[in-house]
Fold these 3 entries.
Entry 1:
Amino acid sequence: MKNNSLIKFLFFSILVSSLYAEEDIKATNHLDSIVLGSGCFWGAEKGYESLLGVEEAISGYSDGRGVRPVYREIIKFKNKFNPNNHAEVVKVIFNKNLISTEQIIKKYFESHDPTQLNRQGNDIGTQYRSIILVRNDEQKQIAENLLSKFQSLLSLEGYGEIKTEIKTLEKFYEAEEYHQDYLVKNPNGYCPDLSTGVVFEDKNNQLEINNNDLYAGKHILVIESEFCPYCKKLREDVLDSYKGSIPLSYRKANQLEGLKISTPLWATPTIIFLENGKEILSNQGYLTKIEFYRALGFFKLGNSEAFNVAFNEGTDSRYCKEYELFKNTPEGQFIDKLSGEPLFDTKDRFNSKTGWLSFTRPIKGSVYELPDYSYGMIRTEVRSKSSDIHLGHVFDDGPNGLPRYCINATVLEFVPKINPKNTSNSPSA
């Protein structure tokens, strides 16, 4: 009797387990995957993970013969042009209810230059080849159809033959852990923007970019790509708070018509400093706030007294021309010459008869102080919190027992208080 009960229980357990297993299978039927190679897998992985409906993107290696699928092997010089080397690829796992195979492959073609053979930009070798590795005939048919359509679009724009291979996936090897989410782990990395600018959508529906404003005067131009975590980080850490007088604009690499730019745009973000539409200075990759403002300082100030003050802890000449301009201004604020951030208010200004601008206090939170032991003296240096440039020193000999902030006028600009009858509020000097 006990044996019969035991048998019935085991049978019931197996039945229930099988039912739940069937449910699990049904529950995962919405997931699919495809393996894509388009050059360095760091940026590609991040791009696919940004798509709505993509569950996971995994960097790895595939399509090799006789080469160990590990990074230190595929990068060896002997394998650089080895046709049997593995390609750097990304396995994209996606929810078919939210995003289709067609949408992913469209994004794949749009996000790199498939006409380049065994390279993407400065990344050269067979490991960087353009390749689509499909799981079944359905994916293969979709890929072939889209390749044909994209070839037509590229040809209209003067591009050559697409070099992308379409094969059936045999084996995917997951890359080393340090390659997974590489651009998240390495904030000073770069995101290549190697796209052609050609897209599947109707060009008439695309936003036209007018660069006419960039042809006159000085401008800061930031080149971004669609899926670039360091572009976002640069905005958040540095650019979103920028209030300087030199205009700041954003573009993609295919939106630079008419501009004279010499820097290869293989990495984003790239910052271009323009004067009259021509590149003067540039930087590829993420910049810290201090690095950005030093580059801007060189661009805006050049080899000047102001640059020496700002970045070499120099001091204005007594009664310099900027001091004479600023000592008796109407009501307003003195701002950081680079960041545009308010530093001092005229209501706190007083005539110390020293030949330098003097204030009893800065605008709250605008500066920071630190000890200065240079030239055998003990002083307290004052620096701008927004740009980190040197401003001057603070002493304890101000009026009525207040401090005296002795500030160099050359690193300041003046913004008058807004008059309701005159809304002009442009910085001077």
Note: The domain at 311-416 is CATH 2.170.150.20 (Metal Binding Protein, Guanine Nucleotide Exchange Factor; Chain A).
Entry 2:
Amino acid sequence: MNSRSQAAIAIADVLAGRSLSASLPPALAKLADRDRGFCQALCFGTLRYYPAISLIIEQLIARPIKAKELEVQALIAAAIYQLWQLDTAPHAAINESVEACRALKKPWAVKLVNAVLRNFTRRREEILVSVAEEPEFESAHPAWLAGKIRKSWPDQWREIIAANNLQAPLTLRVNRRMHSRDSYLKRLADAGVDGVACRHSDDGITLAQACDVTELPGFADGWLSVQDEAAQLSAQLLELAPGQRVLDSCSAPGGKTCHILEREPALAGLLALDSDPSRLQRVHQNLTRLGLEATTAVANASAPESWWDGQLYDRILLDAPCSASGVIRRHPDIKLLRRPADIDKLAVLQQQMLQALWPTLAEGGLLLYATCSVLRSENDRQLSTFLAAQTHARCEPIVATWGIATEFGRQLLPQANGHDGFYYAKLRKLPS
């Protein structure tokens, strides 16, 4: 099976509105092991630069390709990514793309693909100059999204945009029930794998190079998990202690759920909720691999009447649904899938969840509000609205060496060789 044709199929699915996490696995499953890495890299790279690549394609094709032929659009985009960003030899990129076109059973498009790519090769500098000043070309982000990032962070937005366009490092979380971080670093070194301790998470390790994590020492035995350093901070911030009842209200895929259990084995109980049954299955898989136990339920966190047993929680983690604008480098399809109206809808949902979960928290208890967003409308603004309506809530400052202190919480911005973008705020429930 042709790796470029499978990449085109996966990219086309994203152009049609499907997430890459859903479209990529079926494409990779049809390829030999040796071809999967290239296909994956081609998908990620093409989608990372697609807002800019689409402008290039507009200069090369007089009439837009029909919506029913998105695989051809995706194939051309992937080839331009190779020619422009990877400096792939033109004959290789063009010839292989033509063969991929045949593999897709699109014989009518062979001449089109060949002509468009040869035209780009001949006129590359001219075309790049013609689109250079377009905002979407410069940022490789939709203009509306880059604008929102700039509005939230007027002094840092260029650095955020640049970080979003880089490949994220591979970061591990060591299961402290089985190994200390130092002991696992030694295991890695013995296996010839180069890794360094994370600066802010005391369970985190960042690898010098990405690899197949299933081949790392002890992965199948639950010694480690893949989790970004910023996400690892949630378990540290919850101030866990034996005997507490804990709610993870939006738990899938289960990284934070498992980290909570790893850090505090003597909880009175942990309930992990998620509204998506298929995603909750991921939580089960992670719990099983790591040898952990929790109660799980398919449920909507905004409707406690459907799942709450009436017993108050000492700790609540609300990792709220959000724009994911802080993890674009890991999910470049966000640039294509997210729409301006989504931000307002998500803000409504975030507030609904905050207000609905608050009555389930015990006096003196802590609710940790988290998003993987860099947009203030999903972060500080949510806390401002919530605190205005709740007289028995106090926002506690997060004293830390990481991130930027905001009015109510702390914001991590994506770092080129470090953590993702993330926001945290701590809400303490006061006596009524």
Note: The chain has a mean pLDDT of 96.
Entry 3:
Amino acid sequence: MTSEDLKVLKLNPYKNHISPIMYRACVGNNSGVNVHSRDCSIIDGYKESVEILMQHVKDKTATVDTVVYPLLFCCRHSIELALKVLIKNFLVIYRRKYDIKTSDTMIEDIKKILKTHDILNLVDCLKKFMKVDVEIDKILNEMNPVLDSLDDYAFDTDGDTFRYTYKRNWTDTNLEDIGLIDLGIFYEKYKIISKSFDYLINNFCTYLNDLYHKTFTTKLNRNQIEEISKKLPPVALWKSDEFDRTLNTICNEYAISKTDLSKAIDLIKSHYLFCNNIGLERKFKTISEPTFEKFRVFLMNHINRKRKRTTDTPYYDITEHESYSYFDESFEEEGGHLINELPNEELCTLETFYEYSCSYYNGNYLCEDIDWLYEDINNNLLDMKVNILYDICFCIINKKLRQAFADCGQLSYVSLFDKYLADVANLYNE
């Protein structure tokens, strides 16, 4: 062993060294992601390993009889982890739907199963949630061909088959009844399975979380409550005989009692968006009509100055929201005066709808979120005032502000936008 070897052996790989950045892997609390995302990162790591190893098999740069062990272990472990992530997500929905604060028999049983490695047991556990929600029932029924294909892993209940020669009893050896594995077929099946789990984790779980985000009952999810809001007549007609017949029809359609329907109707009446369907508006905070007028005048002045400038004169284009390289000093100066003279509540309200409009890019928000968004913005208003002018003007010009109003059921604000700002936005984009 050389002196250089000895020097390397003394290095601590869990500390930061002056080495190429490509070798520095951020893990644990330093990964910048929450626990759920970390679970997904671990799954992705095993999936990526599968792809790398399989590529070596295809390129004939790996010995297939030896690489089969880490390759199939990575396949198997990524599927085990995916099942556990789904179960944990469904468990959150179960707790939320039935308002379970501590634990119950089902939760305790699931916790025990999550500590095991038996893929078929995990599949059975997953199917227990079919009774929790109609959407889970539907998606898992569609997934049956994929779940049934996991019988390929039935011989391995401990996750050890491709890790060790001997089983845990130290007497029997693994793979006694299997002498050959077609990696091509195994890999093609794995890709289909993996893709299906990716969809469930990345899309369906997000969708399911939205269904049980503040607006739900033990009998109805958010989508069903929205459907009911569209089946109900306007509030002005609720004292008619026809209204009673409508209630009976809805109860029969959704297999719920009048009490269950009453809970849903209470949610509809207080919901920012769904109340529009029954002829109501739940107004969020205050944006006065003069404020819409002030932004109209301000932006019209900006548009007129913009048109007067020669093509070689730099100006700040608010449609280029991410770029602050060139700006109109008058725009900033006059806009600063405008921002300072507006009441804080109105600024916070406008910024709330700007922030909500950003969810069109990342899909994070529902209209139920505007209350906490407002509070967060209000708590940080002093630090945000510099950017609020650009935020508000930007979402006026691209009409995202109007869309945010509409998606949050703010019909009065939509009308005021159309009255004062629609023409401004159209002119700016000519």
Note: Residues 321-327 have pLDDT under 50 and may be disordered.
